[in-house]
Amino acid sequence: MTTDTVTGSDYGNLVRTHLTRVEQHNAAALDDVAELVLAAVQADGTILTAGAGHSLAAVAETFYRAGGLACVRPIYHPELLPMHGAISSTAAERRSGLAGEVLREAGLAPHDVLFVFSTSGVNHYPVELAQEAAGAGCPVVAVTSVTASAQAPRRAGSTLAEVATVVLDNLVPPGDSTYPVQAPITAAVSTLATTFLWNLLMVRLVDKAAETGVQLPLWRSANVEGGDAANADLLRHYQTRIPQLG
After folding, report:
1. Contact by Cβ (8 Å): 2, 14
2. Which spans of this chain does the record mark as coiled coil (predicted)?
């Protein structure tokens, strides 16, 4: 996002411009990811979603969300949650071995798809998640910033984008802050951009499913008439493999 003179009142325009760039830049990759997810749904697979720190906001967006996929299993560890300890969550993301522990508990199959949300994409946890899944033959979708990764310390020897099957680039600048433009110190854009990418994927998925006659397992809001009844069958089907639905 660049402009000559930006005031606080222009911030909304900056965000809208950024999201437009994100949509245009990822058009082809979103089609590829929609095909991967649709194939997993058809095979009765599981969509696993993972992240650390503030990227866990994206994981929350994918799970048990009105209009979202019921076959999503969130992958996380309490140590990765900033609310359980800000400094310790950063240390956990940088610790080698935690990703393998978390994935062993979750289980992986080739007909599953693993999404890893990490804007910097350089710490051990997101990189090793992708490496473990790729080694198990499971497709990996990285939701990251290629530019931010290129400028961040390569703590894991590689980057998430380099390991993934498909990359969705949220185009977030290094440091995440966007305002003021000349010397950004606030207004992180990664959560907005990443959530936007997920919903762009959901839109494509619904359209592709309609074209091919696939019934998507989509949650209804529990706060609308008939929502609980509509979700009951989905809960029965997925609860045994997704313990977080309990």
Report:
1. no
2. none
Instruction: Please report the beta strands in 120-214, taking only residues with DSSP state E, as ranges in sequence order.
Output: 140-144, 166-169
Tokens of 118: 């990490």
Q: Which residue is associated with the tokens 């350089």?
A: 122
C-alpha–C-alpha distance, residues 21 and 96, integer Å = 34
CB 119 within 8 A of CB 172: yes
Q: Please name which of 168, 169, 167, 189 lies closest in space to residue 178, comparing C-alpha atoms.
A: 189
Using alpha carbons, select from 73, 127, 120 the residue that is nearest to residue 100. Answer: 127
pLDDT, tens digit only, all 246 positions of the chain: 444 555 677 899 999 999 999 999 999 999 999 999 999 999 999 999 999 999 999 999 999 999 999 999 999 999 999 999 999 999 999 999 999 999 999 989 889 999 999 999 999 999 999 999 999 999 999 999 999 999 999 999 999 999 999 999 999 999 999 999 889 999 999 999 999 999 999 999 999 999 999 999 999 999 999 999 999 999 999 999 999 999
Enclosing H/E stretch for 74: strand 72-75
Burial 48-73 (b: 16+ CB within 10 A, else e): bbbbbbbbbebbebbbbbeebbbbbb
Q: How far apart are CA 153 and CA 142, in angstroms?
A: 18
The 8-class DSSP code of residue 219 comes to P
Residue listed under structure tokens 């411009």: 17
DSSP state of 186: B
